Structures are given as structure tokens and as C-alpha cells.
Amino acid sequence: MPGKQDNGELRNGPCAHFFLAGFGAERLNAVTNDKLNELLQPLVTDLGLEFVGIEFSPSRGSSLLRVYIDAPGRPVAIEDCERVSREISALMDVNDPIEGRYTLEVSSPGIDRPLFTLEHFMRVIGSTVKLSVALPIDGRQRFQGEVRGVEEDRIHLDQDGKDVVINHANVVKAKLVPDYAALGISAAPKKNEDAGSRKRAPKHK
Length: 205
What we know:
This protein is of the alpha+beta class and 205 residues long. The protein folds into two domains: 5-110, 2-Layer Sandwich (GMP Synthetase, Chain A, domain 3); 118-176, Roll (SH3 type barrels), CATH 2.30.30.180. It is built from three helices and 13 strands; from the N terminus they run βββαββαβαβββββββ. It has helices at residues 33-46, 78-95, 118-123, and strands at residues 5-6, 9-12, 17-23, 50-57, 63-70, 102-107, 128-137, 140-151, 154-159, 162-167, 171-176, 196-199, 203-204. A six-stranded mixed beta sheet has the order 4-5-6-3-2-12. Strands 10-9-8-7-11 form a five-stranded antiparallel beta sheet. A two-stranded antiparallel sheet has the order 1-13. The radius of gyration is 18 Å and the shape is globular. The N and C termini lie close together (11 Å).
């Protein structure tokens, strides 16, 4: 395993908490989201947290692995993100599923929580979501509307008063559209508005 450089940053704010760590190498291989899910989900669950899902963006320059976690019955704390990040780093050192430079980011879902599974969509029935699909439906690939229901592997979405049926396998990315009024927030918070931050100096191993 090539040398590892940690130039991470901790952030907390109104939407999410983050822990970032950078890893260095010169190679890039193809690893699927399914393989990473299989590797990381048991680890997060064993720590008493909910594994929400991952976003993996491979790049020859520097890939990004974002891991979303939740804490049943309470807000996610920065310490949760730090602990999960340390455990994932150790696991990745042993299994080495990603070859090449990459950044690991552990985050709470935030108020615009990402939706990965059918169960996630079932939890937000009656709420508005925004999603994109791989194969166009009626000539469009982006949708935003209320989730009317989930039937087997299909999601029913109210798009401008029309019931659109979307196969879960066709969903590329989906997230909840927050009801800011219900949350008592006058406007959408800026992404870079953090309650505080802490940076760690680079270290080599």
C-alpha cells in the first residue's frame, strides 16, 4: 500500500458534519459502489450507527469517497464521523479496494439527505425529492416532486400533477428537498456556512 497523507479537515454546521482525509498513490482501478457498500456497511453497523450509503467519484487525479452515516435517535456528532473515518481508513489499508489518490469524507446526511434505497424512499412518502435517472423517461432525466408511494422496485413521483413511475435501478442520484418553513429556517443555508471548523496538519506515515 502506498504511503498515506492525512490533510483532513473537520467541519460542522447546520446541514452536516464532515471528516476528510486524503490518501496518496499513483494508480487508479475500477471499483463498484456495490463492492464498497459490501465492505463498509458491516463496519458502520457494528459501530452502532446507520450506514446510509456512499457516493464514489473516481478520478485519475484524485477520487472522492463520501460515506453517509446516521445515528438512530440522536444527531450525528463530529466524534461519530471521526470514529467511522478512523475505522474505514484501517479497513481500506487492509483491503486496498481503491488504487490511486482519493479523499475519504464521512458525513451525516444533513437536512437534504441523500436517498439510496427503496426503504429511504418509503421513509419520505409525502415529501418532495429531487432525482436524476440514467435512462430518460418521457424525454427527461431530472425530476422533482412529491413521493406518492413505493411499489415493489418502483417509485411513484408526482411531477407537475402527473404520476411518474421510476424504476429504482434507473435512479442515478436522489435527495430530499427540505421543507425550510417546517424546519423554521427562513432560507436555504449556504453550503459553506459552518458553525466551526478544525484543520489538522498534514502527517506522513
